[in-house]
Amino acid sequence: MTRPDLLPCQSDLAEGVLASLLARYGLYLCQVTCSGPIPGSFWGDDEAGLIGARVHVRSDTPLHSILHESCHYICMTSDRREGLDTDAGGNYDEENAVCYLQLLLADQLTGYSAARCMMDMDAWGYSFRLGSARQWFEEDADQARDDLQGWGVIDVHQRPTGMIRDC
Question: What is the mean pLDDT of residues 13-21?
Fold first, then answer.
């Protein structure tokens, strides 16, 4: 189900930019045919799927979904990563860290941005107690940032390190 309000992965992104970003974290972008179901998709429809280090997408998969599932892989513990198939699991704090990192990574994609990703997150239906992804990121995400720094996933300047959580 393609939703015109969400930017799909086959947008204005330069060829290979997304795959290159994910490869820094040991992730592989796997394209699925347009009509086929997406392996490992927790939400179904056009949402990204995650099986091990493989992020499964179709041309209509929203970019925010690809980043979100990829960030689950990056932020989960190594023991959970070993058996990863469809359901990334995790707790509330980890989910917030995933959302935070997804916004930082969005800014690393030419043709996308944290601002656009926030709009896509809101349009998809992410819920934040302050009402929007932007408000949450700017006013209520201190714990998520601290967790990411503690795991070595971002540095003190909020820049992604290219490292995955190792604990």
Answer: 80
Assigned token pair, 99: 């959302």
Report the alpha-carbon angle 5-7-13, nearest 5: 160
Q: Reduce the secondary structure of the chain to three states and give it as a string.
A: CCCCCCCECCCCCCCCHHHHHHHCCCCEEEECCCCCCCCCECCCCCCCEEECCEEEECCCCEHHHHHHHHHHHHHCCHHHHHCCECCCCCCHHHHHHHHHHHHHHHCCCCCCCHHHHHHHHHHHCCCCCCCCHHHHHHHCCHHHHHHHHHCCCECCCCCECCCCCCC
All structural domains of the chain with their residue ranges: 17-150
| pLDDT above 60 (res 7) | no
Torsion of CA 130, 95, 54, 108, to 10 degrees: 50
pLDDT digits (tens, 9 = 90+) for 45-64: 888 999 999 999 988 888 99
Whether 142 and 97 have beta carbons less than 8 Å apart is answered as no
C-alpha to C-alpha distance for 101 and 87, rounded to whole angstroms:
19
